[in-house]
Design brief:
The complex is a heterodimer of chains A (376) and B (399). Chain A has 376 residues and is of the alpha+beta class. Chain A contains eleven helices and ten strands. In chain B, a hairpin with a 2-residue loop joins strand 9 and strand 10. Chain B is globular. Classes of the chains: A alpha+beta (376), B alpha+beta (399).
Chain lengths: 376, 399
């Protein structure tokens, strides 16, 4: 057993830290968040040039063949920098779904372009009323001559408006919450019948509601076998959940450090806030929450190539605890900053909002606690 | 980075397992497994078995009888002994005074005491806390006054675990009441418990048990050669002692074992005609606790990995102590909740070996409430969890 970083890991971590420091300070980030697109295509291209978009893909897929720990490192750094660029929807969901479920032709056509930064992807899966049940797919896929007709709705699809292709899950058989019968389709965003209603999210990202009304796609749009996509969806979302756990670790660390600095400098009653024991103990509780979050994000990452049961347990354990720990650290960071903590001006609130929304990503703390308990 | 054990570590773990399977006496194992009381002889005989195997003091330097194990091997050893329901080794000799003696003692002290600690011939207890010196340990008042070849000791120690069984006590005593700071006038003395003037009085704890004692000293004459290191430097040795035994402070292995026991209780108890373990609310409580334990385990593994790669252990020991004890207490709390109304009967005889009467309620229920009450000690002893947070705030956060 060895839980230390390799030299490659350290280099990756340092290079992303340098990028955040030099090219992605909080002002830059705020400007990008306020732009129409919500992310910076130049920055995205920089990610491609630096090889970061290739990290989660094997050499066969045109990637770097890096390990899950590299994704963990990248996401933690992105969390610290509160990076807006759509790495999770485009690369970790869209790209990984094509890599895992797609055929050779689909992989070679799309993954090269994705890794080069030429196309954007999104994953339209969750639906109104489905909450976090991963198998809840009411969107229908009717097979016909030469293709499929898709009808239904998708909720809170990140990066949908910017995406060149949206991977849509739809059902050709089975009950609404059955694992069997779900298929994945690669749908060009400008397909007749597909309505994208875009909006900003509270944490500065971009998402959209999708309405599919008789959307016609060809047979070549089907990713993998018809009706057999659930295992791929679960595996890919577990990887993405582990990744956002690491992102949360970065966000939490930054919040904790910022708060600690404030406790040391802010003077009240003639002494720094940090001289008060009641606040010292709360600062220690924040440290413990951050350390435990880091431990569990690591555990989840290292489980990704294990058995399905081990993976489910580890990923859900991490997501459940990080949901709670993130709420605690976020709320404490705001509280200990006093009135300043609730201003838009300070970065604390922006990190808090991202952390809060991470809890809703593919299942909140309650959902994952239940999933963990069910996989004993 | 990888989480798998090396083949050498796996082989080591198998060796430990085999040893435990063949050498742990079944009657002791049964008592540990069922939460029955252990007597002095239970601890002593397991100590002797480990001593003969050469495994009784893994943390000691090899020259003094240690095992030379890596931090990972020590971790695995702790995990396996807990899983096998082996008793703890009493820490006062092996983990506490022993390291102080081999680090600061003179050669006569090392030659005399260390072999007797290893073999289990001498039993030790710890004389630190006093009625007026708990968390504020440096406020201790037990006086040692030099009189020719002896120190004359007067005062009182308290919370002294197993003083009723011990041959010796290591004591912090005040030798210079006029020192500029309270920490500066303290010395570290080794005292024979059979010395005239020592009186041990039991303290009965809320579980009804007798683990701790008051120890009174009245004109107890202690030879000056029993002073460890230099006079008035005892605080330094005391702090060293507190920092020595970092390994295993989280006690993950033992908590895993206890959690498994809790799950067995929850599976046996009924709620609305179904096993309590299938009750959604109770299942979530156990799941949440289990995740806490996983977080603790991986936090310890991360610390272990840093240590293996040659980095100094940090103050994670304080965090492991805080969370480790909170988790231990939570397990006892959920067990109490699980047995429900059968937490009520107080039948201390049922926890003694050889009690053959019909149990009241389920057999597993007898020790649950005493254990819950007893275990409140965990967040208080060894530096209360509030003191631990104070240390982290000061040393890690620099507040």
């Amino acid at each position: 057993m060895d839980l230390s970083y390799s030299e490659d890991h350290t280099l990756l971590s340092e290079s992303i830290a340098r990028f955040i420091q030099n090219d992605y300070d909080f002002e830059t980030r705020s400007r990008i968040a306020a732009s129409d697109l919500g992310f910076d295509p130049g920055v995205w291209q920089q990610f491609a040039d630096l090889g970061w978009l290739a990290i989660p893909f094997s050499e066969d897929e045109g990637g770097l063949g890096a390990d899950p720990v590299s994704v963990m490192i990248l996401m933690e750094r992105f969390g610290r920098g509160l990076v807006l660029e759509p790495y999770v929807p485009s690369i970790l969901l869209g790209g990984r779904l094509i890599a895992v479920a797609g055929g050779a032709e689909q992989r070679s056509r799309h993954l090269g372009a994705l890794i080069a930064g030429k196309i954007q992807l999104a994953f339209g899966h969750g639906e109104p009323g489905g909450r976090y049940a991963l198998a809840h797919v009411a969107t229908r896929a009717e097979g016909g001559a030469g293709g499929f007709t898709l009808s239904g709705q998708k909720a809170v699809v990140h990066n949908a408006e910017a995406a060149d292709f949206i991977i849509v899950s739809a059902r050709s058989s089975g009950e609404v919450r059955a694992q069997e019968g779900i298929s994945l389709f690669l749908v060009p965003r400008r397909t007749p019948g597909l309505t994208v209603r875009p909006y900003r999210t509270v944490d500065g990202l971009r998402a959209a509601e999708l309405v599919l009304e008789g959307v016609q796609v060809g047979e070549d749009a089907l990713l993998g076998e018809e009706g057999g996509a659930y295992q791929a969806i679960e595996a890919v979302t577990d990887q993405a959940v582990a990744a956002v756990c690491s992102e949360a670790v970065g966000v939490m660390d930054l919040l904790r450090e910022t708060t600690l600095e404030y406790l040391k400098t802010r003077q009240q009653f003639g002494r720094p806030l940090g001289a008060f024991q009641v606040l010292q103990h709360r600062a220690v509780d924040m440290l413990i929450a951050c350390e435990e979050a880091r431990s569990l994000a690591l555990m989840a990452t290292l489980s990704l190539d294990k058995t399905v049961t081990e993976r489910r347990r580890a990923v859900s354990a991490a997501k459940a605890r990080i949901g709670n720990a993130g709420r605690k650290v976020g709320q404490e960071a705001v509280q200990l900053h006093g009135g300043m903590g609730v201003t838009d001006e300070l970065k604390v609130g922006h990190y808090f909002k991202r952390l809060t929304m991470i809890d809703t990503f593919f299942g909140d703390a309650a959902h994952h606690l239940d999933r963990f308990a069910g996989n004993a | 980075m990888n989480i798998e054990l090396t083949s050498a570590d796996r082989a080591f773990r198998d060796e430990v397992r085999t040893f435990l399977a063949t050498s742990l006496p079944p009657d002791i194992k049964r008592r540990v497994e069922n939460g029955l009381e252990l007597g002095r002889e239970d601890y002593a005989s397991w100590h002797r078995i480990l001593y003969e195997k050469g495994w009784v003091a893994p943390g000691w330097p090899v020259d003094h009888g240690g095992t030379g194990w890596t931090p990972m091997q020590r971790y695995l050893y702790d995990e396996e002994t807990a899983a096998a329901s082996a008793p703890r080794i009493m820490p006062f000799g092996v983990n506490m005074v022993g390291p102080v003696i081999f680090t600061f003692g003179n050669s006569a002290q090392k030659d005399h005491y260390l072999p007797r600690i290893l073999s289990g011939e001498d039993w030790w207890c710890q004389g630190y806390s006093e009625p007026g010196a708990g968390s504020d340990l440096a406020n201790l008042r037990t006086r040692a006054v030099r009189d020719g070849d002896v120190y004359v000791v007067n005062g009182q120690k308290t919370w002294t675990t197993s003083a009723q069984w011990a041959d010796h006590i290591f004591c912090l005593v005040r030798t210079d009441p006029d020192a500029a700071k309270p920490q500066q006038g303290i010395s570290f003395l080794l005292i024979d418990m059979r010395s005239p003037g020592i009186e041990v009085k039991p303290i009965i704890t809320i579980d009804g048990g007798h683990e701790v004692n008051d120890v009174f000293f009245e004109d107890v004459r202690v030879p000056v050669e029993n002073l460890v290191g230099e006079e008035n430097r005892g605080w330094t040795y005391a702090k060293f002692l507190l920092s020595f035994e970092r390994a295993g402070i989280a006690d993950v292995g033992r908590s895993k074992k206890q959690l498994a026991g809790l799950k067995r209780i929850a599976a046996a108890e009924l709620s609305n005609g179904r096993p309590l373990s299938e009750d959604d609310r109770f299942r979530e409580k156990i799941a949440s606790l289990e995740i806490d334990l996983l977080a603790l385990e991986y936090t310890e593994l991360r610390a272990l990995s840093r240590q293996t790669s040659g980095k100094e252990p940090g103050t994670e020991a304080n965090i492991l102590k805080i969370r480790g004890t909170e988790i231990q207490q939570r397990i006892t709390e959920l067990a109490l909740e699980a047995v429900g109304t059968y937490a009520n009967p107080y039948v201390p005889e049922a926890l003694k070996d050889g009690w053959n009467e019909e149990p009241i309620g389920p057999e597993y229920a007898a020790g649950v409430a005493p254990r819950y009450f007893n275990w409140r000690k965990a967040s208080i002893y060894g530096g209360s969890n509030e003191i631990q947070k104070g240390i982290v705030a000061k040393l890690v956060l620099e507040l």
